């Protein structure tokens, strides 16, 4: 468990041990903050019949051997429901599954547990349906909502949940905890870039994305590949915004372009942006005015994506790239 989650484990353990655990729990924080691992731990200590307290911090852990634990590990614990949705939204039908689940008696006579990751994907109608369930009297159910984006949740939902604000380490503290010191990751030592820092796979995706983006902006190539990444990768829009800020800074010499270029050179000695060896010219960035205007386009697009419930994201990202191209060709 990441270091910053321990304080939450401690608090939740105390509340659970004293029978004060809230029936609606909201774990919120930036992507990559470890909310789901915290949620999964909580599910297990709530359902375990012989929960252990085997450390001086008072943090509970599941025994992993009782009937409930064994069923949970087999994926067949009957009183636990995790509701995920492959589609863009969590709709009323998904919430009805929750209502139907909590209305039946618990098979093993303990609390029922419902986990709802990506709670921000609930439509307004779904959120309203969930409210009805939350308000049902005498409900012996623990509902755990997880969300990357608190602003997207209805206030009526958040106000009925006990909020646990998950804040990962940032800046120097993060670097120290990762024991990475003065590496290229310094550039990304910021909470919003966390998954790129802590997950090798996401880090590689970030490199790929950056390479496609630079190809597109500098050489007007790879629009299709960039569009695909924007549509497929959860983090892509945030990376896009981050890279434009970085480019703008490099124009003002806050971080020189050559330094940025060095950061993008991969371990194999190839430039991520062009496949060229380090030191090769990888082209010039547009002037700062153009970057600023592109940045505005990106921010506007992100706002639109966030504010509309059923916005056509694929259409918006394609339009964004066309707008950027038009801007670059001026
Ligand atoms: Zn157990």
From TrEMBL:
It is an enzyme of class 2 (transferase). Keywords: DNA-directed DNA polymerase, Membrane, Nucleotidyltransferase, Transferase, Transmembrane, Transmembrane helix. Its EC number is 2.7.7.7. It catalyses: DNA(n) + a 2'-deoxyribonucleoside 5'-triphosphate = DNA(n+1) + diphosphate. GO terms for molecular function: DNA-directed DNA polymerase activity. InterPro entries: DNA_Rep/Repair_Clamp_Loader, P-loop_NTPase. GO terms for biological process: DNA-templated DNA replication. The chain crosses the membrane at residues 21-43. GO terms for cellular component: DNA polymerase III complex. Gene3D superfamilies: P-loop containing nucleotide triphosphate hydrolases. PANTHER family: DNA POLYMERASE III SUBUNIT DELTA (PTHR11669:SF8), REPLICATION FACTOR C / DNA POLYMERASE III GAMMA-TAU SUBUNIT (PTHR11669). This is DNA-directed DNA polymerase.
């Amino acid at each position: 468990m990441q270091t910053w989650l321990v304080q939450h484990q401690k608090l939740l353990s105390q509340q659970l041990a004293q029978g004060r655990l809230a029936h609606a729990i909201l774990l919120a924080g930036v992507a990559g903050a470890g909310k789901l691992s915290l949620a999964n731990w909580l599910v297990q200590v709530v359902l375990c019949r012989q929960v252990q307290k085997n450390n001086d911090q008072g943090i509970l852990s599941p025994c992993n051997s009782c009937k409930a634990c064994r069923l949970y590990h087999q994926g067949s614990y009957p009183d636990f429901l995790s509701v995920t949705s492959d589609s863009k939204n969590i709709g009323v039908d998904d919430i009805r599954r929750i209502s139907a689940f909590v209305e039946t008696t618990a098979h093993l006579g303990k609390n029922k547990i419902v986990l709802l990751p990506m709670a921000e994907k609930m439509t307004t109608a779904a959120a309203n349906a969930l409210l009805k369930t939350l308000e049902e009297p005498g409900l012996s159910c623990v509902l755990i909502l997880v969300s990357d984006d608190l602003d997207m949740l209805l206030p009526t939902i958040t106000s009925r949940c006990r909020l646990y604000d998950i804040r990962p380490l940032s800046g120097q503290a993060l670097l120290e905890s990762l024991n990475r010191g003065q590496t290229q990751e310094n550039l990304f030592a910021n909470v919003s870039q966390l998954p790129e820092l802590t997950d090798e796979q996401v880090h590689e995706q970030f490199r790929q994305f950056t390479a496609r983006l630079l190809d597109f902006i500098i050489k007007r190539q790879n629009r299709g590949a960039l569009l695909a990444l924007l549509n497929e990768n959860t983090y892509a829009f945030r990376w896009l915004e981050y890279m434009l800020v970085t480019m703008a800074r490099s124009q003002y010499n806050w971080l020189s372009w050559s330094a940025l270029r060095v950061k993008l050179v991969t371990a194999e000695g190839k430039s991520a942006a062009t496949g060229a060896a380090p030191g090769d010219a990888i082209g010039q960035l547009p002037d700062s005015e153009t970057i600023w205007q592109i940045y505005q386009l990106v921010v506007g697009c992100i706002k639109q994506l966030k504010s509309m419930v059923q916005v056509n994201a694929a259409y918006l990202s394609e339009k964004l790239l066309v707008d950027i191209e038009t801007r670059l060709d001026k």
